[in-house]
What we know:
The chain has helices at residues 59-82, 90-112, 193-196, 201-210, 214-227; strands at residues 7-13, 22-35, 38-51, 117-126, 129-135, 139-144, 147-150, 176-181, 187-191, 234-240. The chain has 244 residues and is an alpha+beta fold. A hairpin with a 2-residue loop joins strand 4 and strand 5 (129-135).
Amino acid sequence: MTNTHITFGQAIDNGLDDKNERADACACIVSAMNSHNSVTDCGLFAIAAGVAEKEGGNPKKVAGMAIQQAAMAYSGIYGSILSDENSLKISDAMLEMAKKANKAIHTYTSNEKQTDVASLTAIMVYKGTAYIVHVGNTRAYIVTGKTIKQITKDQTKEDAKTLASSLGQATDPDIENSSHPLPVDAKILLCSENLWRFANEENILKFLSEEPYAQSACDKLVAFAKTNGATEQVAAVSIYMPEA
């Protein structure tokens, strides 16, 4: 049977490290609009990773705040789509969401005298296009057939470990804002650092291209990263576009 809707999966493993230095969070929200025998799906998918830069921080809190802002933005964007407002610009709305997340986290950490920061990768999917905002070193990949492409850039310093830009780090972080056409049958993966460090592009391509179910692909990728040496939290979100 042909799948005519977006399907998705999400998985987080808490890992074995109890130092409380980093924490992941994710969210998936999908709505289906039916009109004149046609179906148009719309969805927002987000993954965040909080990092405590000094003892006593709360990375779980800042990761959750980033995801909360993404979820809150969805209702406004979807409402505009339903109202058929021609002025709606999804890319602008996503950028504004990321700015609000940065402000919320920056205010929280300033009040708590902490230096926690968060990475965020969020995607709004609508009418065959992925609208993306990205900060930090969470990642997004697109798989089409037997090819895979990373569609976000890691915002890290020369050591490839320290974040060069992140939510809460500055009043004006470097926020990627882009859009990408999605071919029929395209698959998307959002993931935290501990997944892509322990599951390379070849591994990701294998699981997403061979696994017909989005949730199973997430579960298997997270399990693979753990088996391959990941000890901290690992998170993944997979999005399978309709087959026709």
